[in-house]
Design goal:
elongated, alpha/beta, about 300 residues, Helix Hairpins, 7 strands, 11 helices, 7-stranded parallel sheet, about 10% strand, Rossmann fold
């Protein structure tokens, strides 16, 4: 599976040109409708030799387009007025039908595309294997996605907030993100939790993270779970609920601020390692093969593996 994936809210980006096109069409339809009303008003006024006022002529044009109510201009004995009425009626009805058709098509097409994208995304998410699931795409979840994206690790995001999802979609390409409640069994199953390698419970609500941990552990007992904890008193509860590691953003943030003051050189090195987008430097954890256990670095001939 490729890193990232698709999201149903991808529609937001694709719907912009559609909305712009609809706006242009409705603008032109409005202009044409105004022209028809003006022509109809002046036409009735002139054809009847100004026997009726402009207000009456305007009203006659309006009800002709609406195809309703009774005529206030006498059509008997005047074929010219009758033919003109038919013309105004057909033109007006045509424009109104055009407007209704475009609006209906826009709404129906948007719903169909949304439904198709949603099913396509859920299918890809469900078929994912060895991936990571990020529950909550707020300030913390955004950086989790960024790191997984930068290191080429497959992942699926889950969130209920459209703005968070939109921000992810605008920042990273080809993301698989499901819109839904990560505490729901069905949503986690759609995200492929039974084949997942790990799960991040990083919403801004400790109670939600607690339920996510509990639900995820029940669905996949062997899953590694990392949870965000805002209140230290909830740390033990999350651990009992199934979280293998618990991280407090506030605690880490405070330590980082202190480190900037007392050990700036170390912090500078870590910044280069983690935030250098070109070199993409990382410290990785690798399992050592049993055949290499107990051997010195000089014996390993690491120069042969330099790229």
């Amino acid at each position: 599976m490729e890193t990232g994936g698709i999201f149903a809210h991808e529609q937001h980006m694709s719907s912009k040109p559609q909305l712009s096109q609809l706006y242009r069409r409705l603008t032109w339809a409005t202009i044409i409708l105004i022209v028809i009303i003006v022509v109809g008003t002046l036409g009735y006024w002139l054809i009847t030799d100004r026997q009726y006022s402009l207000i009456d002529s305007f009203y006659m044009t309006f009800i002709t387009i609406r195809v309703g109510f009774g005529e206030i201009i006498d059509l008997s004995g005047n074929s010219g007025v009758g033919l003109f009425t038919i013309f105004i009626s057909m033109a007006g009805i045509g424009v109104l039908a055009y407007v209704v058709t475009n609006i209906t098509a826009f709404l129906v097409e948007g719903e169909l595309k949304d439904s198709f994208r949603r099913r396509k995304m859920e299918s890809k998410a469900r078929d994912s294997k060895g991936h990571y699931i990020i529950c909550g795409l707020g300030s913390v979840g955004f950086h989790v996605v960024s790191e997984l994206h930068a290191t080429g690790r497959p992942h699926v995001g889950i969130d209920t907030n459209g703005k968070n999802i939109e921000k992810i979609m605008e920042s990273f390409k080809n993301e698989i993100i499901l819109e839904g409640d990560a505490t729901d069994n069905d949503v986690l199953l759609k995200a492929g939790i039974t084949q997942a390698r790990g799960l991040f419970a990083v919403t801004n609500d400790d109670n939600q993270n607690l339920v996510i941990c509990l639900t995820a552990r029940q669905l996949n007992p062997g899953l590694r779970i990392v949870a965000r904890c805002n209140e230290p008193k909830n740390s033990e509860k999350m651990s009992r609920a199934g979280a293998g590691a618990i991280v407090s953003p506030a605690s880490i943030g405070g330590m980082r601020i202190a480190s900037e003051m007392i050990r700036p050189t170390v912090v500078s090195f870590l910044d280069i390692m983690l935030h250098d987008g070109d070199k993409n430097l990382r410290v990785e954890e690798l399992a050592v093969p049993s055949s290499l256990v107990g051997k010195t670095l000089s014996v390993l001939q690491l120069k042969k593996h330099r790229q």
